[in-house]
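Standup notes
- DV: blocked on the single-chain target, sequence here:
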Amino acid sequence: VGVVTFSDSVLVPPGNDKSSDCYSYQLAAATSPNLNYLRGFVNSIQEYGSTHYSTAFEAAFDLLEASRPQQGEPYRDQVILFLTDGEPTDDAATEYDRKQMIMKVIQNRNLRMGNEVIIMTYGLGDDVGLDFLQDIALQNGTKYGVVPDTSVGEIRPGRYVHVSDPSMLATVMASYYDYFYNDHNSEDPVFSAPFRSAPGTDLLTTATLPVIYNEELKGVVGVDLSLSDITADLTYMRHGQLSYPFLFNAGSSNTEGRTLIHPLLPPPAVDETSSVFVHITSLEREDAFRNDVYQKAINENVESGNVTYLAKRYLPRGDSTHDGVNTIEVESTVHWTKAQPSPFIIGLSIATNDSHTYLKPKLPSDSVFLYHRMDLVKPTSICIHFGRNATKEQSAVKFGPEAFLDPAQYLEIEEQEYIVNSYSNYMNDNTGTAVNHFFKDGIKDTVVGTHVVDDIWVNDVSGIELYTLLRYIGTYDGVFRMYPGVKLKKKYDPTTRPWYIRAKSNKGLTTLSTPYSPGGGPNHVITLSHTLIGGNQSHHATSDEVIGVMGLDLTLTYFYRLLTMSYSQCMQDKYRCFVVDNNGYFVVHQDFFNGLSKVSDVHITQLEPSIAQDLIYKRVMVLKDCIDMQGIERQHYYEVAINNSRGVVDNIKSKDDCTKYQLLSIPLTNAFLGIVEISADCKQTACYCTKNHQCQSTSVMQCKCPCTSSVSTIYDFCDGAFTLTSNHSPPCPPPVEGELDIQLSSTTGAGKDKMRRDTGIPSCFDPQCESRDSYNDCFGIISCAWCNADISGNDLESPYCTTANQFIDDLCAYNHPTSKPITEPPPLPSDMSKREGGGLSGGAIAGIVIGVLLAVVIIGLITRRFIRKENERRSERRRNNQERSTSVDPEYTPVPSAPPPPNAPPPSNPYINVPMTSIMTLSRDQLYPTNSVTFASVDDVSVPAANVPTDDDLNIHDDIGANSDGDSLNVHANNRTVDNGNNESNDVVENGSGTSDVDQQPPPSVISQSSNSEAPADGDLQRESQA
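- DV (later): unblocked, structure below
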């Protein structure tokens, strides 16, 4: 398709910064991006000048001639739709000469095209020349002295239509395709290319057959098929970690190879107004696939096949915009077959040795299931959580489409009370006799297994609910538990969300997200998530399947409070602190709390450009890129990794006043702690950043914000196709929706109070903001905000604590005084009672592990810093006592002089003294005791919490000394004491043998279990080969 506008001159679409200029000299494929661009061009047309027909036809024939099918390509009809609302005004002496000139232009240009071009004319309004437009459509200029020339072929006459009613123009012009009906009978349906009937609708394909009576076409019968319906089983198929299905079109030339289902593309049901159709060989780039799958699949004589080869897998690292992709190679076998009589090819790429984890069946002992549709079946008690009905009596369960036997039916049918009751009857049945009408095998086992978290969440008396928005767990098969339970959107699928994907990419680590606002107001939260690993409990392999992810949303202010409590220097004028993730995005920065920066999606290149440039120079922060196939652009992003053995970049003695900093890898997380020495002489040099995120340069050594650049060298905009090989950049993962996609009510504080009064429904967790009379007591509470200035920034005479939404109603300024020290520790979990058999109680451990997973992160970081400091002191003593040369790591200069560990008295923080062995016991034995994949009840093993891999996966022994007999490892942050249980010294770190050389790698910790744990029988873990 192409567009030419004309007056006394012609104008063709020039292209833009996201396309090319090909629209000006050739036709473009009728893809959604091209149609959207051309539609915008047409909408920009303005009336001016006269009406020159001849120049318009010259430009139209130029486009057609440049786009003629090449040798070997199928024949396509050539057609011009000519629309005008006026008589021609071309430069000529008389009207006869003018029309003669126009007809000669048409005749001469069509002769060069073999008389293949058909002209359809449309006259709009009452002032157009009806007879002349009819002559143009017939290409008959005899009355103007232009005799038809058939020397190169017969002239194909078109049609003329007069449109007096402009409102009918679209309908009239859209019927031009009636002219091109091929007079033949067809017993097979014809499938259209996928399309969207309206913005926001699912992708459709139309299957049609002609209605012929007495060998005469009477009409066409057709049906629009939703691709999300007919491909649901493929879309939601789960086959291990590295195996997947795909579906592509092998039909006519203009749709041949278009991919409909693939893990690197959005599913057909994703709400998008525009879709870029990607050729299957741009996603499966290996020569073996092109030759042995694609070429054979489009061959009419081959029905199916398979081939084994070394294939690349492009694995998302989280959010498609920020996190990029990891590329690995695995041996795979691709099976494919034709789905007759449709033009589609169904395929399955199975990674060799890929496996699927099943949970051991177990009947519930009590009520394990409460569906999230509390509007249909109400729980015993209801409370208000951020303006929405919720419940605290137990967690609520939501199922993703992949959990159902018929995903399309689940998405299509509106859930009703009897359906929810049927769900509940099956899930809560403890006899094994209830009939299952809806769910795939294993879904009930997952529901029963994950129910153990309720003992942690519901019975938690730690007070952590004041700092957390939600706690949840999502599993690979689509089961999602959330506490407090609220209603979610029907299409919500935990496995496609950034928090799930990001944790899966950082398997075995505590994964921190960047801040986001779940419901407006000044409160922001960050998500902490961790993977649940299947496989053998005694030893996890890197290939073991991630069967789920557990997470919680923690207030950003509370996170910052924990940080500053552990590092008092962060509140001093001399230093500033920040935490970034492994893509360089800030989890927290001091400027978030003084109004100097926005909070969400802030990159280190924006707030700390000098440090960012230094990290780029040191190759700690590396620029990478992937191809965004839906946005048709190249996405540039960063990966941050400290590759020296110390896990630290120490630049504190830099002569550059802007780059005196330390960056430390926070153990067992995806994050890094930065501490900057502030200098008044620093003159920051900005990195290259633009508002439209367009790259000014793609140099890997130049500091720039994450940005996008053109893909014009590998994408033909007019053909609508990528030209990619295995040597090109990997494809970006498909776009995903928000962190939890739960927009909490924006009802104001007063409105919420009125809601509670009118309904009599209490709050799930009452933060009692109004009763908190100090900044320290208010700071960090989930729905509280400290109002100390008016909207103009003027200090209030009497600051006060209020609800986050009332904060807006009161016209407060969000102006936390970061220079004000936080002298009071936050109220952390206090349940430290002992069990009769020794060790912490289940409630205490549960509160620790699930309630404030972050505290473990801070403890690990404090311990690592202390060990390094101790190591440096020992090294210094060795140098003083022995005259020998010492090799130095060139990437690390051990100068931990600034900032030193905090010297303040230890706060009354129970987390700081938590036995690490007990924490590790839970983190490994929570849902899987020993070698079993059966979810344990509270009586079986401690209290399950969030799964953490084995010691080998955690590498805990790289940073924290541990003895081999399982004694507890206590970490006291502020007096810098580490006790491994042997009581050798309070000023050194000892390994398990009692020696004092911390450079020696200690043996892995022995993880203790509660005394009443029973070893499960062999065979609890079932594996099924996907080959």
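- Follow-up: The longest helix spans residues 853-881.
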